[in-house]
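Sample pair:
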Amino acid sequence: MRSLPDADPGVPDIRSPLRYLWWNAGRQRGALLLGMCFATVWWLVQALVPAVLGKGVDAVTDKDAAALLTWSGILFALGLVQAATGVMRHRLAVYNWLAAAYRTVQLTARHAARLGATLPKRLSTGEVVSVGNSDIAHIGSSMDILLRGSGSIVAIVVVTVYLISTSLPLGLLVLFGVPLMAVAVGPLLRPLHRRQKEQRDITGDLSTRAADIVSGLRVLRGIGGEQVFAGRYREESQRVRHAGVRVARVESLLEGAQIVLPGLLIAAVTAVGASFAVADEISVGQLVSFYTYAVFLIGPLRTLTEMADKLTKGHVAARRVVRILEMEPEVTGGTGRSEGGVLRDSYSGVTLQPGWFTALAASAPEDAIAIADRLGRYAPGDVTFGRTDLAELPLPEVRSRILVADNGARLFTGALRAELDVRADDRAQAGDDERVWRALRAACAEDIVEALPDGLDAPVAEAGREFSGGQQQRLRLARALLADPEVLILVEPTSAVDAHSEARIAERLAAARAGRTTLVCTTSPLVLDRADHVIYVEDGRVLAEGAHRELLDSSPRYAATVTRGED
């Protein structure tokens, strides 16, 4: 069995949605062409059955046993060929669907990782989820339908030629009736796609709200807002339901038209053919063939309508995928080198001395976050690392040397040891476990692991949902300490823990990072009092610096910020 997807998805053509779909098809052109061949033979075999059936009926009418046996054998052989080609067509259709869909998954996932913090700033969570849930399916379907669609076109042409050569009036009736039916259902496709887009957009908004509720569920319960948000979610889910009903109305009309219109064509062909048979202009077998062909053409016609629908949906889906792939990260790296040293943000004036345990208190939390993002190269800014502009360093080097750990980080599924120590491997774990326990103690998270039945080998559920907010925060802190970067920037690492744990973390954190550059963005007096140096920022600029107790006496604004106005 062939592995999917390919290791290297390639470089997509994102100049337009159509070009992206064409590029995707080109990446699997062999499977597509082979599938089209099988689908064409599959349709053609079915198209030959009515003609062979008509010949058999004529053999019965003429009482020609030899001819009857011959045409019966041909009919049986056609059945075998149809079965074989049908199996191969289906296998290749599934392969092409999976290949196109998962190639798109690869591209969007890798690009999302490359975009990093840029992606959530540009697109909502629901929009990204919708791309993964529905758009990849539409792109896969646009490849899948090419097989049956191309074969159905060939089958319609062959049937039309046969009918015209047998009876010109009947052939022309089918020749003009088929396009008219295809055109008749066309006006239903535009409102269908418009309503489907509306439903998708509403569903995306609902997914965003659901993600927000889940991520803040503990907080909502704490402030009594759970019922309020549940009510809003219920209202929006009803909007999604109503949008789905509107889509279903158009889909039902389309399905009905695809049955009624071919039915009218069958009735017309049968009526005209019967009159020709009575006048001896065609044989009884030919009448049966014409009737069977009129019935048979329902399949290819519905396939053409389905192809138009799926290709349109694929084009719309590709537009959304291209929108993501067109995005560029807000920050990029260079090719320079730095020996390290002082890390300085010129805009705010924040300066981190090597080996110092520095704390940053800001009057507005967003100012501290903005400074942390610039220092970690998650946002553009005039930042120097030693004598080198941070923008000149390669991003992988910046990420390995400067770690920004905030409360937006997530725990991932897997063994707790591997989740905490990303450098753990299959080697002996004795030394690694010792490192892990040191980090857990510094983060005051030993009790969390000790309470687990399997300790460090305990599995972590998705997003670490089995842990409380405070437990997740302490485990994330332990993970950051285990990474042991040259510069560690922590954003409110103790905001969700109790005062007793916060005091112990403040004491142990400085010792755990001794000799390494550390910045903690916080307004906690317990942490500030343990820092070697405290920086106070107001309106995005450094207003005062010094020791915590000195600033309490010399800077009333600092004192008001960290004591929250308390005496």
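The chain has a mean pLDDT of 84.
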